[in-house]
Amino acid sequence: MDVIKAIESEQMKENAENFCVGDTVKVFFKIIEGTNERVQVFEGLVIAKNHGGIRRTFVVRKISYGVGVERIFPLHSPRIEKIEVIRKGRVRRAKLYYIRGKVGKKAKVKELIRRKNA
């Protein structure tokens, strides 16, 4: 069992969890098409985080041409170049699956405003 944990700890990324559920993020994901490799940006709302350790995943939802699109990303994948937080969200739930049923302004999450330490 210790061997498995040692291998998992080698493959985990450092500082990967700098975002929470409710945040709007940009995920820079490497796409391999034949011999070409490019970076595709997926911007949306984080509606869930699942599992733990090396198996940690997160679900990002966006609206594309009026259709809701969700994508599940493995957090510690080598294909994820970086995750950029656009805005922090103020939520009271761990899973935001109720957003799927909302349309327009009701599908928004309030922004978390933090005070500066003076």
Features:
118 residues, mainly beta, SH3 type barrels, five-stranded antiparallel sheet, 1 helix, 5 strands
Structural features, described:
The chain is mainly beta and 118 residues long. The protein has a single domain (3-100), classed as SH3 type barrels (Roll). Helix content is 8%, strand content 42%. The protein contains one helix and five strands; from the N terminus they run αβββββ. The chain has a five-stranded antiparallel β-sheet, with no helix packed on it. It comes from Sphaerochaeta globosa (strain ATCC BAA-1886 / DSM 22777 / Buddy). This is Large ribosomal subunit protein bL19.
Helices and strands in order:
Layout: H1 2-11, E1 24-33, E2 36-50, E3 57-64, E4 67-74, E5 80-87
Antiparallel strand pairs: 1-2, 1-5, 2-3, 3-4
Keywords: Ribonucleoprotein, Ribosomal protein
Function: This protein is located at the 30S-50S ribosomal subunit interface and may play a role in the structure and function of the aminoacyl-tRNA binding site.
Protein name: Large ribosomal subunit protein bL19
